[in-house]
Amino acid sequence: MTSYLFYDLETTGTNPCFDQIVQFAAIRTDAQFNEIDRHEFLVKLNRDTIPNPYAQITHQISMERMNNGISEFKAINKIHRLMNEFGTISLGYNTLGFDDVFLRFAFYRNLLSPYTHQYNNQCRRMDIYPITLIFYLFKRDILNWPEKDGRLSLKLEAINECNGFVAGQAHDAMVDVSATLALAKVFFAEQETWQYVNDYFIKAIDEQRLSKLPKAFANYGYGLMISGEFGTKQLYQAPVLILGQHHHYRNQFACLRLDLAQLRQTTTDNPDNAWVINKKLAEPGFILPPSKRFLALLNDQSYQEMKENLAWLQKNPSTLKAIRDYYCNYTYPNIPETDTDAALYLNGFWTTAEQQICADFHRAGAAEKSVLAARIRNPRLKELATRVLGRHFPQTMTDDQREDFHQYLQKVFSSAPPIDYKGQPRYSIANALTDITALEKQTDSLTPTQQKQITALKNYVLKLENY
To answer: Which of 250, 280, 261, 274 is CA-nearest to residue 322?
Structure first.
């Protein structure tokens, strides 16, 4: 039986590799969006987590409430079970752009499969945010559309307030889930459009639609990509040329933007001057066929640039080939110093043997986990398991495990913290204190509650400084 799991996360920051979830909320519905059940819980801070004060004043979950939540290990296991229940379609507002990435890393560092909720047991994912873009562009009359300072705002809290869906504080996870569900019901009532957009989240259909796009010339299809990254000024759309399937990341297609004059300054010597987007199957941005109906909202300048660029590309096949070869063969740099918690994308999927080790670890009792962790030969799994023990089962650790985790914490709290797969350092004590100081000078813009929360966070971070 198919069910939808509408969910939302509140987190300690924006880095999915190192920050953690502090609140989870979800509403499961049937296929017609009738509620079946709901789930909501707070998550206790890990020993190695340094919260970002800007996240703190956004979600406004106090330090006291966070430290009374359930452990991350229990929380992530529960979320994993919910999302992997047979026939679950997990979705929210911008979940594919933010929340799902957070969950993927949380599953990974807690020794759970990071990807099964995407394809196993007839599960898959959707996202209401890109659906909102489509409805704004082509079915605008079904909603009130909010503006801020004279400009369109598609933030969930703005849409919720403008349409009076749900009362409550924005960035409370359950309030946001309830607002997303209410918005989805409005879209669902427009069944023809809803089904058309829904199918973009199915890999086979998305790939088939790409293959059926009309050819601009030769074997290059083209269409209109709809994506939040293009922004309000561009009405979230840009014409693109499909360069082809990526040679290393087989689930991606390289798409060349056609609405930028800079493309015509590209040569065979600087192919990276072109703006190319890697489009993942069943994920935004979605590419519509270049029909008159869909191109009608493209501004005149973008339309003219598209025409000129298509003509220029036809006359410069060697430059087009250089662009295609560069982007279809491009691989993300492998940063050797990447911390284990951030190395999900660098090591591929769990092997069958690794999956078995993870399953054994989860089945084991608290005391037995440390014994199993000590026996693991795989360095990555051993380090992940040791960190799980240090965060959640410190009383069961061996002396060697305790020392390894102590050295890890010293690095986290040092002036040279671990780095992620992009080479970005983990949010540090120094970062937190700098941001707290900046916020303390903005008392006029903070509520009394937010000021108290910043003070409590400062006290917490200062204790970490003395680790």
So the answer is: 274
Q: Note the pTM of the prediction, 2 decimals.
A: 0.95
Please answer whether residues 87 and 1 qualify as being in contact, where contact means their C-beta atoms are separated by less than 8 angstroms: yes
Task: Give residue-wise pLDDT tens across range 295-304.
Answer: 999 999 999 9
Helix (H) or strand (E) holding 208: helix 203-211
Angle at the Cα of 418 (from 416 to 424), degrees rounded to 5?
A: 95
Q: Are 179 and 160 in contact (CB under 8 A)?
A: yes
List, for residues 74-128, the tens digit of each pLDDT value.
999 999 999 999 999 999 999 999 999 999 999 999 999 999 999 999 999 999 9
d(CA 170, CA 8): 12
- The Cα-based distances of 254 to 70, 125, 257, 302 in angstroms read 42, 22, 10, 20
With 0-12 / 13-18 / 19 or more C-beta atoms within 10 angstroms meaning exposed / middle / buried, residue 407 is exposed
Closest CA to 372 of 384, 360, 383: 360
Measured between alpha carbons, how far is 90 from 28 in angstroms, rounded to an integer? 9
CA–CA dist 28, 30 (Å, integer): 7
Please provide residue 238's backbone torsions phi and psi, each rounded to the nearest 5 degrees: -155, 135
Give the HSE-up count for residue 155: Cα atoms under 13 Å, Cβ half-sphere: 9
Q: Report d(CA 299, CA 330) in Å as an integer.
A: 31
283 Cβ contact partners less than 8 Å away, ≥ 6 residues apart: 96, 127, 201
Report the DSSP pairing between strands 35-42 and 3-11: unpaired
